[in-house]
Each structure stands twice: as structure tokens, then as C-alpha cells.
Amino acid sequence: MSATVLPPSGAVASARLESFSYDDDIVRKFLWATFIWGLVGMLVGLWIALQLANPIFNTSLEWLSFGRLRPLHTNAVIFAFAGNAFFCGAYYSTQRLLKARMFSDFLSRFHFWGWQAIIVAAAITLPLGFTQAKEYAELEWPIDIAIAVVWVGFAINFVGTMLRRRERHLYVALWFYIASIVTVAILHIFNNLSMPAGLFKSYSIYAGVQDAFMQWWYGHNAVAFFLTTPFLGLMYYFMPKAADGPVFSYKLSILHFWSLVFLYIWAGPHHLHYTALPEWASTVGMLFSVMLWAPSWGGMINGLLTLRGAWHKVADDPILKFFVLAITAYGMSTFEGPLLSIKSVNSLAHYTDWIIAHVHTGALGWNGFLTFGMVYWLLPRLFQTPVYSKRLMELHFWIASFGILLYVVAIYSAGVTQGLMWRAFDATGRLAYPDFVETVVRLLPMYWLRVAGGSMYIIGMLLFGWNIFMTWRRRPATYVVPVITAPALEKRYVPEVVTTPRPVGVWARFAAAGWHRTWERMPITFTVLTVLAVVVASLFEILPTFLIKSNVPTIASVKPYTPLELAGRDMYIAEGCFNCHSQMIRPFRHETERFGEYSKPGESVYEHPFLWGSRRIGPDLARIGGKYPHLWHVRHFNEPTSITARSIMPAYPHFLTKTIDFEEIQSRVDAMAMLGVPYGDAVNRAPQMAREQATEIAAEIERQGGPSDLADKQIVAMVAYMQRLGMDIKAIPTTVGVRP
Amino acid sequence: MADQTNESGGEGPRLLEHEYDGIREYDNPMPGWWLLTFAGTVIFSVIYLFNVGPVGNGKGRIADYEAEMATAAALQPATPSRPAAAALLAMASDEEAVEEGEEVYQSYCASCHGPDGGGLIGPNLADANWIHGGSPDSVYNTIAVGVLAKGMPPWEKSLTPKQMSEVTAYVLSLRGTSPTNPKPPEGEPYTP
Questions:
Q1: Domain-embedded: residue A730
Q2: Which residues of chain A have pLDDT under 50?
């Protein structure tokens, strides 16, 4: 670390020298949080992987079933592990790239402790079943507000630091940090707008098609601006540092940054191909994803080619090994992303484990390995002592690499296998695997391999933790805090001495990127331009989605849920059923043969939030209503294997013993009514209406030979909801019916 | 693209003047193949958007679905042939067929009709009473098209005609057996 920085050549000699120090304590805090939450998130991942391999791991505790823990896994890994890793690296590099201490030590600590408190709140509320049912945006509204406040604190701290900088220009890593910070704020706020119906319950203000659009605008860009751009920023700092060489191409940085930021925002609808989303949106989502291929690879090229002439270093530097594998994984998953967005490919991959494999290539490879490399590079600098063991680093690298390979190969095969089984017809025109559970049990060997692969990755994580701990133990009694001296930034910019001849011609001058150089010394302008790129791109899709009426043709027979059905739907949300069951039948023969008529946009108009799902570990439920008698559902929820012997669904015996809070249903109905759902009379007498319907259903269950004491039990609400699903359009002729 | 790997002396890539915390950047041009890939995806997207030739949405997803269904319907016989009652009766005394039928029964039917046919969610199959007819072809028909109103699925979507015949044979063979927990008789008595 250089303690003194000389004024750049050409700077005014009278520049005032300033002394300051960097805040590395905050970096150490985030480093510990990265490891601890990473381990927690991965252990939860291992646990839910075991639940899929054998449902016995769902235990008899309702808080630990797959549907409740899966969001905990995704949130912990994305926001706790990757989030803290980003903050760790960003706080370290930003101060150095700007030659300034963070703007406010208070805001830094507010950010750290606030973020950890949010994670703890998530770890408590998700198993309790408090969820908004939107992927990666499950946390309920009070926590959402806390996230927004903490994030704004981070943003103020970051911008404040930029304004107090002593380095005239912003380096490319900072561009990526800026894009991440502003875009995550926009995405988070607009996707989470909801109507509270109690302290830990709310309904999305959007419904059906629009909610689906907003969710995947958010969901895809959570991947983009939480897992991609922040880590590209980290890569641009830590890769050249570790490789001790210059970045391959400044021009490539400029083009791939702006194209990535502008194009990524459009890509969300590729998560909704062949659903009730309007086809134009689906097409736009696909094309912008295809166009994202090159911009994404721009980052990979700049990362890998930074090693030009330094490849020999990779052999004996485990840090570079981690970086090389991270960037390779990034390259693979950003090639696969555009591929998966192509409609025909997506028709096979959607709802299967292929997507799970894809995200794990990204998360375990790109985010995980970049974090490991970065932390190993930081350890001696933060704890001011050599890393405890380089051999452990090597071992970590190899064991985790092999773990990823085992994981993704198994889960790619699971995805393709299931996708092909779903669409297979036999020679007589009958579904080759009509029994859904057949297509699930076929995957179980692959699920065990995933458990093995994931365990290896976690063993690597333990080695990582041991190395961090032992290095920390050898730290000096007090850390040396170097005093840095650098000239303050002059109020007015004095142009650098240009040693190269000025390019001739308009194109050559444009290509020389002097205009971009200007932007780089104007942090606020740069931030505003980034916001503009993101907002303009978003509005191109959002405005038509909300304004064009013909996107969602109304269906007169579609009515709001009754109060009891709504209570059942809230249970469906709380249990996280949408994590395994879709409610969206695509217009394919194999889907309509299996599940019934394909889903129409007009069927979802009262769906706050939409529950279309993204993965089918169990069958689609969009038309489950009326398919089985009430008693079938009662027995099935109580013990799924009593109906389907090989089912891997968790059992929900507590539905039969816990009572419905009828009075609470009123507040739920009122919140829905405030969102414009035409509830009519129900806004005055929801509990009474619910009781009446519950009594009817309970009587029918008893008549069918079931238990007799269910009229106030939760199972009745759940049965009411199940039996309603897909019934509203039954007037439209379907392919299923009794032959005359 | 010229070789620019040479770092020390001679023809090398030009390093830009600026430096951030010791990090420097080359002024390398963007790789040609990368620019071509980018341009290629943009051109592809424009062609796709305008639905040119085989590239694009074609007639759209709903039209494609309807075509897929029409093709499949054209290949299917209008009414699937039904096995004769006599053939089903004969199978009911064919041990092998009944055994095959029992296997299918245990995986698909037992959850509602009980492992021994005594009835559970669905009616008792071992007594003399039938809600939808007890003749061999009525039983087969009920299995094939189901009774949607009562939650009996149409099994012809899942089972082959052979499997349905075997299950019918097994169900017929249950008549007169004594299940452990029989559901009370429902429907009309049927005498073969």
C-alpha cells in the first residue's frame, strides 16, 4: 500500500496536501458477515436439497418445511452472502479509488448493522410464513421499508464519498457500483409496493399479468444489479490488483458497461415465456436477452485478458485460480442466459431444474468464487499478517470446484430429464408419463448427487472459515492505520497533459472516448445518466404493460375469491406452496392434456400477488378445482403419501388441528377491496360469510366419510381455495369432460 | 487484431495515462469478434421482431398451439374402441391379467378406493352395489371417462386400453370378497 501519492503530472503545484486514513474496520465487519451468512445460507440450501431427496427432512415442524425454507436459502445467499461480499469489497475499493475515507463513519455502521438486522428479521419471519410470495422479494412490508432506508443510507454515504474524492476521474469499478446502488433502489421500491393488511401481511398493489411483469422486471434485475454489476465492479478492482497488471481494454469497459446497464433492464419477461403475459412483452424480453450476450462477455473478456502475459501466475496463486474460475463461470452462465431466453429452449427448460442449475453456475461459480478470491486477497491486508495457509486455499479451490461440477451436472440432467418427460407422448397419442410423480421420482438419484456436490462446496466453505479465523487470530495487537497524503481536488478541472495526438475525424474522436472521460469526472451527471438509462428502458416496457387494455382481455365469469377462499390462499402463500407448484398452464398440448385448458390473462385479474410460480416440483394447480373430492384434499394435506405413495410433498397435518382466525379475514378482504377488487357485501360481513362456507365444506367432508370436527379448522379454508382454482372459466369448453 | 501481448519493450499495447490506486488500463481496441457478435445479435433481433421468414414469432403462440392440437386430433380415432363385455369377463378369470390389474390398481386406485377395494374416498368396489353400473363394460367406461363431478379422474388420459381392461378385470374379481373396513353400499345392486 502506497502511503503517499504524488500529485499527477500537470496538476497545479499549489495543490493543498491533505492527510487522511481509510476505514478498514468497516471492511473487516462486512468480511465476517460475508462468511457467517454465506455458511448459513448454504447450510439451509443443503437442508432443502435433502428435503427434495427425501421428504423426511421436512420434519414434523411446520416452520421447517421446504416451502418456508427455500426463500430463506435464496435470500440468505443473495442478500446476506453476496450482499455483504459486495459491501466488503466496495467499502475497501471505493475509498482507495477515490482517495477518500467514507463520507460518514456513522452511515457506514448504520449500513452494516441495519443490513445484519434485516437479515436476522428475514431469518425469523420467513420460517414463520410471513411472505409476499414474490421471489427474492418475499420479505414483508416493514422489512422492505427498513431495506429501503438502509439502502438510501448506503447511497448517501457512497455519493458523499464521491463528492469528497481526491481522484478526479471515476474508475470503471465505481461505474458498476453506481449502477448497482441506484438500480437496486428503484427495483426494490417499485416491485414491493403493497397494501398492508396487518403488521406482517400485505398484498401487492399490482395484480396478475402486471404483477408478474413487475416481479420479473425486479427478479431478473436482482440477478443483474445485485449479483452481476456489483461483482463486475469488484472484479475490475481486485482482478488487476491480484494479477498485478493493467486491465485489458478501457474502451471495452465503456461499451460493455453502458450496453449492459441499458439492455439488462428489458430482459425480465423471458421468465414468463408462454405464460399469460402478452406475447410482445415476451418477445422483447427474449431479444434484449439475446443482445445481452456480447455486453456480458465484455466483462469476461476484460477480466480474463487482464491475465495476458501473466497466466503463469495462475498456476501457483490460488487467488487467481478463484478469479479465473469465477469469470469462466460468469461467461458460461451469461451465454446460457440468452440461450434460455430463446422461446423454444425456454419451453423445455421453464419450470424445471435447468433453471436451478443455471443460477447455481452463477451463484456458486461467479459470486462464490469471486468472493473467495477477494477475501483471500484482503485477509493479509485487513488483518495485517500473512494468510494462515496457502495450502488450505488450494484445497478449498479444488474441493469447491469439484462440488460445483457435481452439483450442476446432476441438476442439468435432472432439468432436461424432467422437461423431456413432461412433453413425451407415446405412439397412441397419450402422455408417456401421465403420472406427475413419475417425473419427480426419476430425479431423486440426481438430487442425492446434488447433496453430495453441495456438501463438498460447504466443506470448502468451512476451510475458508478456518483460514479466515486463523489469520485473524494472528493479527497484531493493534492495527496500523496508515496515514495517506494526497492533494485535494482543485475546484476547477485542469486538463491532463495529453501526450498522444488528437484523433482526426468525428468517428475517431468518438472512439477515443474523450466524451466519456468528461462524464467520469462528473459523478452526479454520471449517476443521473445511469438512472436515465435504467428508467427509460424500464418505461418502454412498463407503460404498455399497464396502459394497453387489450393485453388482458376480461372474462366476465372471473370473480373475486370468497372470504374463506382468500384465507385459504393466504395459507397457500404462507406455506410457500408457490415454490413447488405453478398456477400457469402454458399453451402446449402436453400441458393442456395433463393439466387442462391453458391459462388466460383474464383469469388473474384479482391475483394480488400473482401466484404463477417458476418451478414445478409438484404439478400445476391452475385447474385443480373440482378435480378431486374434498376428502381427497383433506387426506392428501394430512399425509400426501397416503394418496400418492411416492410423493415428496411435505405433510401438513397442522391444517387439521389449527383453527381459522375468522375475524382476521375482514382485514384481508378490506385490503383487497382497497386495491380495487370488487368485494361488494364482503367488506361488511367477511367473517360471517367465511363461517357459512366453512360449515358447508366441513359438512361435505363429513358426508364423504371424513372427520366431523373441521368447520373451524384451517384445512377447510385450504380446501375452499383448492376447489376454486380454475373454476371460473369452466363455461369455456375444455378438452376434459365426460364423453356423452 | 494485432498481437499486443508484448508487454516489455517493442510493439506493445498502449497504456493509458491514468492510474487508480495503482490500477492502469490498456487502450486496446475492442476485439473484432466481440463487436461482430454484438452486431449479429442486434441484427438477429431486428429480423425476429419483423417476423422475417422462419425467424420470428410466426403466427403466435396461440395459433401454434391450435395447430399442434389439430395435428394431434387428426391422428386420433374419433371414438376409441372399447373392449367387448365378454372379453373383459374372460379376463376377470385370467389370473395373469388380474395380477397385472392389481398392480395398476394399487398405484392409482387404492388411494381412493382402499387397498382391498373396501372404499375410502371413493365407493366400495367389493359389494354388489354400483353407482354407475356394474356390468363389465360399464365399469370399464367409468374408469375410462371418470366421474368428474365426484372427483373420479378420466383414466383414459393416463392408462393404456390394456391397463384399463386389466384394472376392470381386477375390479370384477373383487366382487364378493370381504374387505377389512367396508364402506356401506351405494347405488343400485347389480346381478351379473
A1: no
A2: 1-13, 732-740
